[in-house]
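SEQUENCE-TO-STRUCTURE ENTRY
===========================

Subject: a protein chain together with a token-level encoding of how that chain folds.

Sequence line: the amino acid chain in single-letter code, read from start to end.

Question of interest: how does this chain fold, as expressed in backbone structure tokens?
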Amino acid sequence: MGWAEQCQSGTVCGMSDPQLVTPSGKPRARSLGIPFTGTPGPWNAITDVPGVEVGYTTVIEGDDVRTGVTGIHPRGKANPHDACAAGVYSLNGNGEMTGWAWIEESGTVSLPIAITSTAAVGIAQAGINSWVHERFPDPNDEWALPVAAETWDGFLHAINDRRITEAEVHGALDSAASGPIEEGSVGGGTGMNCCGFKAGSGTASRQVAWGSETYTVGVFVQSNFGSRGELTIAGVHLGEALADDDPLGSDDWVVPPGAGSIIVILATDAPLLPTQMKALARRVPLGLARLGTTGSHFSGDIFLAFSTANSGAFSGGFPLGEPTSAEISSLSFLPWTRIDSLFAATVQCVEEAIVNALVANDEMHGRLGRRVPSLPRDRVVELLRDAGRIV
């Protein structure tokens, strides 16, 4: 039995350690000894940011349905209307994230967030709206522009035949919780791939000391990008050594290598301005680059960052009566001159979250008999050890 298999079986790593395994016992990247910089939070997940909750609906039916939806509550299920300072950035716009224009206009995001399959992004947005309306009926005549984002799972999933339903969106939002998060082929990540290996949902976090405070940066990825030849882990280029068994690189498959997409949701409890949140979102591609990608034209790479600080500072809804001085809000925020540590944490989180999505996975079969292999964990460990990255 190889090291990676021993770890997965629990004979090497502690099965209860959320740094090493997912809630269902699947291995995470650190269980293989893969080195990462920075200090993770207790769960090494976006939910280390206080208030953030994540839930899934996973839909696997028959031979050709491999899809789902992920729900994220920035301030928890009880506070969907309390807006957060936010910023968005697109490395490549061959994808969709609804609510983008309002975030650019207002510098805020509110309501739950959903991530799903390309053909279901409209249903996901509608599901968020109906979930909020059913659970928070007053006021029920104001506008709602929630974020629903997508990546394409059509290699394994009958994308135009079986879309998620609004009820399944509600299920993901209702099941959302704090604590350790399942990774791999779950929720919206169910049918997704990365660099020719099975991927999908992944997460990571970093703690950042700032004076007497400690802030957390957390990232959630729906990873579905990159070609096999690009794959790099812990600074070691592995694409050539792992070039075999690559169904997505086959001549029988017309989609160009590297096509797919990645959605990244970044949260922090550090008090930041909307423009500073956009600056964090712009650092996400530096984390992607550590995986070796050059950013395919056929990959929609879109990123949203928000801060849970300054609760109540961004008023919403229609105004009532004449304006008063009581409506004037104030924001606390870190100075631009001291923000570099949050940039570093962003890059570190993105890199590890993607590797977690790869490691916490198994081979999957789907539509038309197609197959996507899992990352060969033992071979990765051996290659990283040969390169001196694992002792």
